[in-house]
Design brief:
Two copies of one chain form a homodimer. Chain A is mainly alpha-helical. Chain A has a domain at 12-110: Arc Repressor Mutant, subunit A, CATH 1.10.10. Helices cover 66% and strands 7% of the residues of chain A. Chain A has a two-stranded antiparallel ribbon with strand order 1-2. In chain A, helix 1 packs across helix 2 (40-49), helix 2 packs across helix 4 and helix 3 (56-63) crosses helix 4. The relative contact order of chain A is 0.09. At the A-B interface, helix 1, helix 5 and helix 6 of A face helix 1, helix 5 and helix 6 of B. The structure holds a DNA duplex (30 and 30 nucleotides).
Chain lengths: 148, 148
DNA sequence: ATCTGATTGCTAAGTTGGTGAGTGACATTA
DNA sequence: TAATGTCACTCACCAACTTAGCAATCAGAT
């Protein structure tokens, strides 16, 4: 796609596959969120919260939006019972946003099938192959981070 | 992140790296679009159009939005001189949206650095390693498509 | 040749989810 | 203790989407 327009380009199956992966990976949250009746930001918020509680501002940073927007996200998720606000024990400015059972259930139900498939793909790799793939993925991630 | 909530999960460096890659890859267009003074949809449209001309409806499908939204995207891109509408030679219903020089320049300037870096990462792989990586990427893509 | 249905691209109106600015409460540093 | 910074929030505003519906055009069946 970009090949025609970027000078000094050599076609590569790997890069082509990477582009397709990234494209599809971007569509998945859209579709999953639609089915769950959530916005993509709400879904991503649930995903991030599944790794542990965090405040609205942390969420804002993770989602790449303003704290005002994150406030709204938490409002809507709380309204659906997917998360709960609780006061931070040590810092009384903060609010901890905690995933409820309903919230983690939502994440599990919607994303588990995909992760199961990904795990299967993963298991088809030998140990040395896994190392190669991981090195490539980390490298590609670094390359992308470089333009941020 | 999702590990805690998906039953029967085994930690894997590959999957972890994949998740990080996908997350970062989703942030890149946001940031690049911001710098270019475009919406993410507009940037993605430019990217898709760099592979060849297409109509607003095709664009809508590629972007995952309605044709009404795609109409607006083309309007705004045309307003900035990045694309041009021209009548389709054979089908008089259709409009072909064509990238202008300004448009392809925009794509090249904004995305070339990242692709250069990605090509470098790619070039560090041996031929057999490339095959392994590509097979994994294609497999992961199929796994994601399965939930769409 | 004409009817039917599908497709394309668009407009209009309404909804949504975001930003920017600003506030009060609290924490941290000088 | 004063100054500065951080957190979570509200408010007004706006960009970009949606749904609904339109006229023009095409393709297939009759």
């Amino acid at each position: 796609m970009v090949a025609e327009v970027v000078p000094g380009w050599r076609p590569s199956g790997t890069l082509d596959a990477l582009q397709e992966l990234v494209d599809v990976a971007a569509q998945v949250p859209q579709e999953v969120a639609r089915r769950a009746g959530l916005s993509t930001s709400e879904l991503h918020a649930l995903r991030h919260l599944s790794g542990g509680a965090m405040g609205p501002v942390d969420l804002a940073r993770a989602l790449g939006v303003t704290s005002a927007a994150a406030s709204g996200v938490v409002d809507r998720l709380a309204g659906r019972g997917h998360v709960e606000r609780r006061p931070h024990p040590d810092d009384r400015r903060r609010t901890e946003v905690v995933l409820t059972d309903s919230g983690s259930h939502e994440v599990a139900v919607r994303l588990a099938p995909m992760f199961a498939e990904l795990a299967r793909v993963d298991s088809e790799l030998g140990p040395d192959e896994q190392a190669v793939v991981e090195r490539y993925l980390r490298g590609a991630t670094r390359a992308m981070k470089a333009v941020l």
